[in-house]
Amino acid sequence: MLKPIYSVCLLFFFVFSGLQFTDLFGASGPPYKFNFQETIIPVGETACMDVVVENFVDISAFQFGFKYDTSSFQFIGIESSQFEGSSIFADEAANMDGIPIVTAGYIELGPLTNIADSTVAFSFCFKAIGVLGAESELEISNLSNGNLSTIFADGIQHLEPDFCLVPAKLIIGEPMPPIIDTLGFELGTTWMYDGIDIVLERDTLIGGNTWYSLSELSVCSRDLQEFWLRKKGEIMWMHDPEVNQEFLLYDFSKQAGESWEIVMPNGAPKHTVIVDSVSIEEVDGRLIQVQYVHADPYFSAYDFGNKIYNGIGSSHYLFPTGNLCEGPNGLCSFATQSQSIEISSEFDCIPLSVLNKNAAQIELFPNPNNGSFQIQGIDNYESLEIYNINGSLVKRYDSYTAQINMDRSGMYLLKIDLGDGVVVSKKVSCIK
Predict the structure, then answer these.
(1) What is the greatest pairwise CA distance in the chain?
(2) pTM score > 0.85 for this model?
(3) Domain range holding 384?
C-alpha cells in the first residue's frame, strides 16, 4: 500500500531526544545495513526502488536522508508491506545546505521490529520525468537539522559505520511497450500465413456458447470442412459437428513442465504439447506471453512449432496436424477488428499496416441500410464476394461496382480483393 508523504520531524526529534538521554550514544553493534537496489524506470513511468535490509533485529526507530537528481526524477512516496500499523514515512525536504532531499524514517512505539535478512523492507517510488538514459546516483545526506543517519536497535542508537546505507542508481530506460489485451474472437478475426489467410467468417450458438467457423478449411482439409473454434479466458476449444463434441486446442495458462493433450477428429493421432518455459516478449511493439513448447515424441504425430502466443496460437500451425491451410513457413500476423499484431518479418507477408490502411479507408454507407449501400473510399477492386451469415456465397462481382443492392435482410460479410494479395473484409447489416 502506498503510504502518504508527510512530515513527523518534531515527533522524531522528541523520540530521539528521549532515547539520547537514557541510552548509550553511538554504542557499537553489528552493521545494520540498508541496500538500495538499482532501478530502471521507463520514460514517463513510475517505479519503485527496493531497499533490502540486513541485521534488522530489535529495531525501534531509524532516520536518514538522501539526495537525487530532481530534474530527472520526481519523488512519489514510500511503499512497505513490512511496517503495516507502524509509523514509516518519507518526506521531501532540504538538508542543512538547502539542497532538496528525501527524509525517511520509522518509529515503533510498541514491540521492536525484526525483518529477515535479504528482505525488501520498503521501496521508494519515483517518476521518470527526464530524458532517456538520464541517471541519478542516490547520495546519503545529512538532514535539515544537521543530524546524520541513525538507527535504534534494542534501545541503543547507532551511527555510521554501524548503520550502513548502500545507495544505488536510478536510470531512465526505454518506454514500456503496451501490454497486449487478452484477445477474444469476433467475426473477421484473421490468422495470416505466408500462403493463405484463415478468417472467422460466421458464428453460431452451440450449447449456449458462441462458436466461429473458419474460412478456407474446406479447400485444404476434407476432415475439417465443418469445424468451429471458440475461446474463453486462457482456453481455446475446437468443435467437431460430426460427433457433436468439443476438444481442447490451446491452454495458454500452462507453465513450464506442464502439458496438455489435443485430440483431433476422425481418428487422427493424439498430440501432446509440453511447455518448456514461459516468457514475456516484445512482439510488434507489444508485450505478449509466449510458451516455448515441444511435442511428446512418443505420443505426437506432428509438431506444433516451438512458440505459442497467448490468445493467438502456434507460430507455425493453427492445428497440430501438419500443414492444412497454413503456409509452410509459419504465422505472419494476427488481427481482430480492433487490433493487430505482426508476428514475423521472416516471411513474404503483406504488412499489416497495408491491410489496416486499406481497411480504414473503405466504408460501407449507410450501415445498417435498407438493402442498398455504397462502397466508399476506393474507386476500383479486382473482385467482390458477399457471404451471408451461414457462410454461403450470395453475390460476386468481377468488375468494379460501387452501388450494391441486396435482395434480403441479414448480416453480410464482404470480401474485397484489392489486388496484390490484399483482401479486406467488411460487415454490413441490411434491414428491408
Answers:
(1) 98
(2) no
(3) 356-430
